[in-house]
Write a structure and sequence with these properties.
- The radius of gyration is 26 Å and the shape is globular.
- 54% of the residues lie in helices and 8% in strands.
- It folds into two domains: 5-217, no CATH class; 223-446, no CATH class.
- Strand 10 and strand 11 form a beta hairpin.
- It has helices spanning 17-30, 34-52, 59-72, 80-90, 133-149, 164-171, 180-183, 196-213, 223-248, 255-269, 273-288, 294-317, 328-349, 351-357, 363-374, 383-414, 433-463, and strands at 5-6, 95-96, 121-122, 193-194, 250-252, 424-425, 466-471, 484-486, 500-505, 507-512, 521-524, 526-530.
- By secondary structure, it is mostly helical.
- Residues 92-191 are annotated as: Disordered.
- Residues 130-142 have a biased composition (Acidic residues).
Length: 540
């Protein structure tokens, strides 16, 4: 008999060893490392592509894929026999064989898990041989004895090996898929296919979790770490541009068309009128310099949009004082602010997320949200709780920001291709709707990765010992070697009196927090294009 066990955060000031382990199990679901989640998403997406290409995978291939997914998520290490037994028992949760036999799953002794949203729940059938009440009671007593021996120890944030299968099932049985066209099962009843709702919800969930997981990468080491991060961000933006060009198949724009479309693009990307005017001026200067490649325009706006939406929007929504130390009180205030703003805005934008969050006990984040307000003294023992609660607002706000940015950017860029009679199309780049959709999905993924990289940079700035700020060089401002870096090839010497045409990356400044008399110094120069450049611009 299957029984669902829910995690309960006790409303009392004392946390025993068993409660600590259960709490860390819950945190482990929502607080995975950023790179681990990225690998899991990549593996699952590859699994979708393989399953939907019409080939029927063998049992060994499916088992190998499951093991790879498990290893990517950091789960199930060293328990291949248990994984195989769980796979045999629960593989119908991951694949489906459309046919009459599928409707008779209940007759075969298979019970569907209830929709519990993001609540942490697992079956007692965990592949470890605990099938009777007596054995389960013995296991609980053994856990209590083990916990009393190490009361003062803080358990590591790990995910239980044998619970992976059932937790994954609970997370994957939620809402319908958004991209039915790309994940629809094949018509051949003899071929296996991935359940669309299972896979899509898994990907959405992992993408939502990776914002919280990126907190584990935050470092207090200042200059070198942040410089590496921002360089990676720009590199990811550059890598995304060719994919976007494949989506739109745009080769060149005329002067008048580029100018008018640039104004429309600026109005969509930038809400502030001052930024609108500046963006139009930048494009006019760019076109005036006889640069006819749309790649430059798209790269400039992609970079500007990502940096502005992340670095500025986070500032507007979360009023953290950089001069205040990161104490428990500051974390509590940030948590209250996130409760009043982020959760309400997410519920309006993502009703399906609100439904899963409010299911039964309210979900993982609701549990974590109640811990500091009810038991503030626990911060002394659970540093990771403070980190999760402090960054929860940003992590929950990220999907909404990323979705808004992606949608508006793509809508604006699609408008560049609406008038085919005015644009020059490259016949060699024309592709089918399927390949265009794949390119669009790849572009979205690359933009999200760049977005997360810059968010990681923002968090590092907030947690660093130094005080940071950033500036965007304005159009037609003079080039300054101490705070700017040219996008020209290295063979071109940039004169000091050159004028800035476009800013692709802001400059980052810092000073010591302890010494108020210090002035800000440049740690990362701004990346700019200057007057008169043409074919000598480096994009690789």
């Amino acid at each position: 008999m299957r029984q669902k066990i829910m995690l309960k955060i006790p409303r009392r000031p004392y946390f025993g060893p068993k409660e600590k382990r259960l709490l860390y199990d819950a945190i482990g679901v929502a607080h995975r490392e950023f790179t681990t989640v990225q690998r899991a998403i990549k593996t699952i997406r590859q699994y979708i592509e393989d399953a939907n290409h019409g080939s029927k995978p063998t049992e060994a291939e499916l088992q190998s894929q499951l093991n790879e997914m498990t290893r990517s998520c950091g789960l199930g290490k060293g328990n291949k026999s248990g994984l195989f037994k769980n796979w045999q028992k629960h593989k119908h949760k991951f694949i489906s064989s459309p046919g009459p036999e599928e409707s008779t799953s209940s007759e075969a002794g298979v019970d569907e898990l209830p929709n519990t949203g993001l609540n942490v729940a697992w079956d007692e059938e965990r592949g470890d041989g605990i099938d009777t009440d007596d054995e389960r009671q013995q296991e609980e007593e053994a856990e209590e004895h083990r916990g009393q021996a190490d009361t003062n120890k803080i358990p590591r944030v790990t995910q239980p090996t044998t619970r992976e299968d059932s937790v994954h099932q609970t997370e994957c049985s939620q809402r319908p898929v958004d991209l039915q066209d790309t994940l629809s099962p094949p018509q051949d009843k003899n071929k296996l296919s991935v359940k669309p709702d299972v896979v899509e919800f898994t990907i959405k969930l992992l993408q939502a979790v990776e914002g919280a997981g990126s907190a584990s990468l935050c470092s207090l080491d200042p200059e070198d770490d942040i410089k590496i991060t921002i360089d990676r961000s720009l590199q990811k933006i550059r890598q995304a541009i060719p994919s976007l060009l494949q989506v739109n198949n745009v080769a060149r724009l005329s002067f008048s068309e580029a100018t008018s479309q640039a104004a429309q693009l600026a109005k969509v990307l930038f809400e502030d009128q001052a930024w609108n005017d500046r963006a139009v001026d930048e494009i006019n200067v760019l076109i005036g310099a006889h640069v006819d490649s749309v790649r430059v325009v798209l790269q400039a706006f992609a970079a500007a949009a990502i940096y502005l939406w992340v670095l500025v929007d986070i500032e507007k929504n979360f009023n953290f004082d950089p001069n205040r130390p990161m104490t428990d009180q500051v974390a509590l205030e940030a948590l209250k602010q996130a409760q009043n703003t982020t959760f309400d805005s997410n519920r309006k934008s993502y009703p399906e997320l609100d439904a899963t969050m409010s299911a039964e006990d309210g979900g993982i984040f609701d549990k974590l949200r109640r811990v500091p307000s009810e038991h503030p003294h626990l911060f002394k023992d659970f540093d990771i709780i403070r980190e999760v609660c402090h960054l929860e607002g940003i992590a929950k706000h990220l999907p909404m920001l990323a979705d808004r940015f992606q949608q508006q950017l793509l809508d604006a860029l699609r408008s560049l291709c609406q008038s085919t009679d005015r644009l020059h199309w490259s016949s060699s780049k024309e592709s089918s709707s399927t390949s265009r959709l794949e390119s669009q999905q790849r572009w979205r993924k690359q933009v999200v990765e760049a977005f997360l990289e810059v968010l990681e940079l923002k968090i590092k700035m907030r947690k660093a010992r130094l005080l940071y700020h950033f500036t965007f060089p304005t159009v037609r401002s003079s080039f300054k070697r101490e705070s700017m870096e040219s996008v020209h090839s290295r063979d071109v010497v940039t004169p000091e009196d050159a004028k800035v045409d476009l800013c692709l990356r802001p400059s980052v400044w810092f000073k010591r927090r302890q010494n108020q008399k210090d002035t800000f110094k440049v740690i990362i120069p701004a990346l700019v294009s200057i007057d008169g450049f043409a074919a000598d611009v480096e994009f690789s």
